[in-house]
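pasting input
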Amino acid sequence: MTKTDQAPRRALSSTRLGARSAPSARRRLRLPEEAGVLVALIVMIAVIGFAKPRFLNPINLFTVLGNTTFQGMLSLGMVYLLAIREIDLSVGWMFNFSAVVAALLMVAGANPWLAMIAGIAFGALLGLVNGLLSITLRLPSIIVTLGTFSMFEGLSLVSNNGRAINPPDPTTSYFTLISAKIFGVVPVVAIVFVLLTVALHFVLHRTRFGYRVQAVGSNPDAALLAGIPNALVRLQTLVLMGVIAGLSGSMYVGFRGAIDPQEGSDFVLTVIAAVIIGGTPLSGGYGTVFGAMIGMLIIQVIASGIIFFGIDATWSTFVTGAVIIIAVVLDQIVRYHRQRRANAQRFNEN
Amino acid sequence: MLKSYRRHLLVLSAVALTLGGLDLRARADDITIGFVTHAQGNPFVEQIVDGAKAAAADLGVALKVQESPGGSPEGQLKLAQGLVNAGAAGIASSMPGDAMAKGMNDIIASGVPVVQFNILAKAVQGPYVGERSTQSGRILGKMIVDKLGGASAKGKVVIGNCFPGFPVLENRAKGVEESLKAAPGLTVLGPFDVKVSAVDNYNHWEQLYAANPDSVAMIGLCAPDIASLGKLNAANGDKFIAGGYDLTAENLAAIKDGHAYVSLGQSPFVQGYLPIVLLVDAIRSKKPAPVGFYDAGTQVVTANSVDMGPGLPSVTFDELQKLAADPKATAEFYKPWTKTVLSAATPPGMQSIEAESK
């Protein structure tokens, strides 16, 4: 393994700083990158909860968490893509198409658990198509996925004949487990989402693959010189996105008991918005998986808050956008102050 | 400094009053109904919302309207769940997908009644208020065949569907195609996906016309189609017969100007009004709203004739145009019908849910 393999941009910079001086107590207490958006989320929940105490009812809070699950999972994969300077516009239709395939297999009599695995594998296949097209044609994935967005949509609509697919027996263990709520309030799918977030955070920040993703996104030429196979890492990342879309789609069928022909078609903007709100830059080289989860929660909390405040439907779209801007501004203020503190500290150390 | 604080205090007070004002209306009555639609800013859907608002005012209940911008079942279900968690005692919603059924049935199981309008999901355990979709398709198809010359008509007929997969739209298409079979010389093309947003809708129809310039008729199944087809016909010398659905101001203007032939109404006011009545009945009687179908009625409108259907006063085309643009006038027009509905112990006319697609 090369040095660059193990040390992406931010890891490198902190190692260099660490070499100059022993870490101070203040640095050890440094707030995580996600602190800004977490503060924004907590402030929003507190404000809405103060004005509308019913909002803080655990049933509502877990409903909000459950509602983040399916798009939230997609946003976790999108973090990897933005970190490697890629983007996938076809995520919504990969979600839909995988769900349709899983549901069709269930209708054909397949065991729902096996159908779920097939749905995940099918998602991986779609991701592989995106990856191979992108690498062999030497095109950015944004262009390739602009095309596959429509291809996957068309093929999905052909597969389901433009109609909802309803698996025949929603009383089997697959459906009862996926749609279950622990203690009657905590959705199982939300727990899967949280576990997936922890796992993907670990992979991004503690494994060779994660370091490579960030290294390629930070400086592809330097990564290549350091011996990192850029094309392979890009391919793996696009396949990972497909796997996550397949998982999300297959679980959706279990959770809702059906997949509609257009479901997922409007997911992509929300997914990208959640990742950016969470603090992953479009410039690549870094990503925050927890940030994406918090970003998706912010979007859902805003949507729920609008309902609780009884804001008129015609105003709700504006309010959603305005609150997102406020959340991002709050995050930027926190980042600015943290950067200023870090610069001052570095200056003092020198 | 003090001035600055005062200014901030003034702004905060204004914000608090605004938010408080929104809530005060909700507290004016102990029943709040959530109303969720599958489109935002759509003229036809706004006519449904106007009906719901009129019912809420007549019955003295609070109404919270939420509109899902993309017609996504998942997005719409989230809005319904949010309204229930915020305290809505009943939910009226269109059902753009079967994936909503399980979540809506969970809401019903929790003791909150649900009524469907405009778009039906048969798996939802609640009543439905809408048109007889297949039958309305048959009426539209017959009008077009008659206009083209009856059983001896010949040529291409293009059908467009703005939301392939919506059961009521598929049923309309089925009904249209059934009637077109009366003229064996007609070749049916489609239904093609013509999208729902006004710009996309026009573009798709324009491309369909470019590919089939010899079409004798073009039939849309959704609200934006007549307006698009009217523009297209006007730009090409009115060469085909245009037919479709809904009595929006834009659609009626296209018919009046002679660029479209026929539009079928589906009583949006009734589709908004009746669900609120059914919900309030269910909430006040503490009994679940029974599963069944309420036919909202069908209106058939050409430039020369306006058939509002049974039980409604007759109007001229000009009067109909005024109604389409004025929610207050519409509420006034439906007054005799609302009086009948409100004076009955339970709203009359419930049929089996299967009647919707017969």
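fyi Residues 277 and 295 of chain A are 5 Å apart (CA to CA).
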